[in-house]
Specification:
Length: 160
């Protein structure tokens, strides 16, 4: 019996308690428990009610999460303008055109497109289906909301 016990001890893996791991990571034991229930975090061993973390698996898990940073002296290169900058430039162009028209005594009028709500909602839902391709449940919620709006507004004119 002693020989079996010494073999298990000799082959035993170094284990860390949740309290020690939480202290080491600067987290609470509750966070570790949440991670375990969500299938996140480092691999663990559960014996009865007791939880242990194999030290080698924790070290591997931590190494896998190291994020490399770029050299701070290098300036980031952007291949295209940010959408906000594009909208800002478009707004400035519109403002300039409007100001020039006012100086010349002209009034800039925007053409208002009016269509039925059903047509506008159909166009919007087509756009939403493409836009929310990666989030199909969001698209389904939008589509469901529009079903009742379509019923209520039906053929009411709306500005497109």
């Amino acid at each position: 019996m002693d020989s079996q016990r010494s073999q298990v001890e000799a082959g035993a893996v170094s284990l860390i308690s949740p309290e020690e791991l939480a202290r080491r990571l600067g987290l609470s034991t509750t966070t570790l428990a949440d991670w375990r229930s969500q299938g996140r975090g480092p691999a663990y061993l559960k014996t009865g009610r007791k939880v242990w973390y194999p030290r080698s698996r924790v070290d591997d898990w931590m190494l896998a999460r190291i994020k490399e940073t770029s050299d701070v002296t290098e300036k980031p290169r952007r291949g295209m303008a940010l959408p906000l900058q594009a909208r800002r430039e478009g707004s400035l162009q519109m403002e300039t055109a409007h100001f020039q028209a006012l100086q010349e005594g002209r009034r800039l009028t925007q053409r208002v497109v009016v269509c039925q709500f059903n047509d506008a909602s159909k166009d919007f839902l087509e756009w939403a289906e493409v836009e929310y391709r990666r989030h199909p449940n969001s698209y389904k919620r939008i589509k469901t909301s529009f079903a009742s709006a379509k019923h209520y507004f039906d053929r009411e004119p709306v500005r497109a």
